[in-house]
Structure formats: structure tokens, C-alpha cells
Design a protein that fits this description.
single chain; 254 residues; alpha+beta; OB fold (Dihydrolipoamide Acetyltransferase, E2P); four-stranded mixed β-sheet; 5 helices; 35% strand; disordered C terminus
């Protein structure tokens, strides 16, 4: 089994799923970008609920020891054998400089046979489906997301489901897409909203306000990934850099 080391800046932390091998543990997936501007899917990075949360955040630089996974044929996927947080977060402007050259469309990603990508959406509409306003603790919520991903949308429901209707900016062949958002950090925002609001209409309004304010202040990009079992596209994370001028070239963090 060939092992390799990579330094990866974290773009997306997927919502933890209950580990099939460790009954008391959870596993986390990461989408990261290396210094060559390559997107990689890293899994699993494990932790035990109740023994501290995951020891890294978005933009943190990880040194990971990886190999090819046994059952995941997606070429961007890597099985994580170990990881170390280098305690040297990459600045947003540096992340942005790595990410922007990757911006493409879902149509092009399909032609390339890719399972990860970045798109800049032209938002057409937002669908918010409130299935439950019951407050969940982190572990319960993680397990719900795991069921949703494993069983599919028809047989499992998240408390709040958010789908974007959008076109891929700059892609004439793109009519429109309707795709669910599974960003962990945003799901934490939804959990906090549900703690304060019990009426579905109020929850929807708060979420709409959140996105309205976000798009006024920041640029919005989707980090896209395909479902392991079904191959369908999901919005795995949001990349939201500040709206600013030119970015100075500086990749000293790598």
C-alpha cells in the first residue's frame, strides 16, 4: 500500500458521520486544496463525540499521510492514515488565489469525469424545507445527516433542507440546477436558529435573511462534490471570500 504525504488547506469540513468501524466514534471528511491547486477528498479523520471536537477548521493547513481508498474509485479521493494540524492557517487571499483558477461549471465537470469542483452560481431561487424544529444536540444531528447521506433523500430527512436553484456563471450550456446544500458550518447556523425559533415560517425567514446579508457582503462560490453511492452532485461547502480588490500573490503558507 503506497503512502504519500500532502499539505492540504481545508476548504470544507463535512458533517461528521457515525463510524461503521468504531461504534462510539464519528468520522469526518474533508475537501482540501494542495499547493498545486488540486482539490482532494480526504476521509476518514476520526474523533469521539464528547472527547473534544475536531482539531482543525477551514483554512487550517494539515499534513496528511494518505493512500488510495479500497472502495472509492473517484480519482480525487484519498484514505487518511494520519493527520497533523500544522497550526499555520492559510490567509483568505491565498486560499482565494488557489481556488479562483478552478472555477468552472457542473457541465464541464461532468465532461471531465470529475467528482469535485468549484462553481460560481447565479442564484435563481432558494428552497427551504423545514421538516422539524426539534432541537438536536450535535451527536443527534450528526447521526441524522449520516442517515440522510446513506439512505438517500427519499427515505431520510434532515431537520431543515436547503436547495439552491442556480445557473453556473459563464456557462451558456447551463440551463439551471437544483442542488441541496450540506455545508457543516451553515448547518450549525441552522441549529442555532432552531434554538431561538420554533415556527417554520420564522426559521425560513431567518435563513433567507442570512443568505441575503451574506451575498451583499461576500462573494459566493459552491464547493461541489458527488455522492459516493449515487454520483449526484451536492453543494458540500460554501466558499465566501470578502469582496475586495486585487489579491496580492503570496503562497508563503505552503
Amino acid at each position: 500500500m503506497r503512502r504519500e504525504k500532502e499539505e492540504i488547506a481545508v476548504l470544507v469540513r463535512a458533517t461528521p458521520e457515525k463510524s461503521k468501524k468504531d461504534g462510539d466514534g464519528h468520522a469526518v471528511g474533508v475537501i482540501g486544496i494542495n499547493k498545486h491547486g488540486e482539490l482532494l477528498r480526504l476521509y476518514p479523520l476520526g474523533f469521539r463525540y464528547g472527547e473534544g471536537m475536531i482539531d482543525f477548521r477551514k483554512n487550517d493547513l494539515l499534513e496528511v499521510t494518505v493512500t488510495k481508498p479500497e472502495h472509492d474509485v473517484r480519482w480525487e479521493s484519498r484514505k487518511v492514515l494520519s493527520h497533523v494540524n500544522l497550526e499555520n492557517p492559510i490567509k483568505e487571499r491565498e486560499i482565494k488565489e488557489l481556488v479562483l483558477p478552478l472555477v468552472t461549471s457542473i457541465e464541464k465537470l461532468n465532461l471531465e469525469g470529475a467528482s469535485l469542483g468549484v462553481v460560481k452560481p447565479e442564484i435563481l431561487d432558494l428552497e427551504i424545507k423545514v421538516n422539524s424544529t426539534e432541537p438536536y444536540d450535535r451527536q443527534q444531528y450528526f447521526n441524522l445527516i449520516g442517515d440522510f447521506l446513506e439512505k438517500g433523500e427519499k427515505t431520510a430527512q434532515m431537520p431543515v433542507e436547503i436547495r439552491f436553484f442556480f445557473r453556473c456563471e459563464g456557462e451558456e450550456a447551463c440551463r439551471r440546477h437544483k442542488i441541496i446544500l450540506l455545508d457543516w458550518e451553515f448547518n450549525e447556523t441552522v441549529r442555532n436558529i432552531i434554538r431561538d425559533e420554533q415556527e417554520p415560517a420564522a426559521v425560513k425567514r431567518k435563513i433567507e435573511e442570512y443568505f441575503s446579508n451574506l451575498m451583499k457582503e461576500k462573494e459566493l462560490y459552491f464547493i461541489m462534490g458527488t455522492h459516493f453511492m449515487y454520483g449526484t452532485w451536492m453543494i458540500t461547502g460554501l466558499f465566501c471570500p470578502e469582496k475586495d480588490g486585487k489579491i496580492q500573490k503570496s503562497l508563503s503558507g505552503f
